[in-house]
Amino acid sequence: MSEPTPVPEDAGGGSRTATVPSLETRAPETTAMRNGSHGSAAGGSRGSYGAGQPIVRTTTGVAEVRYRIGVLATRRFTAHLHAELDARAEHVEDFAFVRGDRRNGAGADLAIVWQP
Predict the structure, then answer these.
(1) Which of 27-36, 49-58, 95-104 tops mean pLDDT?
(2) Does pLDDT of 21 surpass 60?
(3) Distance (Å, rounded) from C-alpha 70 to C-alpha 86?
(4) For the whole model, what pTM was predicted?
(5) CA-to-CA distance for 23 and 84, rounded, in angstroms?
(6) Beta strands in 14-116 (DSSP E)
(7) pLDDT-derived band of residue 63, with 50, 70 and 90 as boundaries?
(8) Which of 65, 61, 83 is nearest to 74 (CA)?
């Protein structure tokens, strides 16, 4: 059912062996799951898992740390018309599990709502 699979180390070459469920028993995964982006919750470890199966650690390394802030504001213009602004920002330390790599992002959504 499960076979040892060589997994490259984060640095220094060589490889490690981790037990990863065979493709026949694994549930569909998203690209983010395959790339290990869920690893920040596990202290920088990357893992592999399928639906209903345990997480199997495949590598260890630096953790991705994210800081997020957001605001939602509403402004009523008339009894039937209002605007909603949703703004957010994010700062990521050790982006993509690379020590010292930082990223910033921001976004906003503006909606004009008319209710008869």
Answers:
(1) 95-104
(2) no
(3) 7
(4) 0.48
(5) 46
(6) 15-21, 46-48, 56-59, 65-76, 81-93, 103-114
(7) confident
(8) 83
Identify whether the C-beta of residue 72 lies closer than 8 Å to the C-beta of residue 84. Answer: yes
Burial 10-34 (b: 16+ CB within 10 A, else e): eeeeeeeebebbeeeeeeeeeeebe
- Angle among Cα 55, 57, 59 to the nearest 5 degrees reads 150
Residues 11 and 28: beta-carbon distance below 8 Å: no
56 vs 37, 68, 84, CA distance in Å? 14, 28, 43
**pLDDT score of 116:** 92
What residue has token string 């690209």? 31
In one-letter notation, the amino acid at residue 40 is S
The pLDDT tens digits for 64-112 are 899 999 999 999 999 999 999 999 999 999 998 899 999 999 999 999 9
Tokens encoding 90: 């994010």
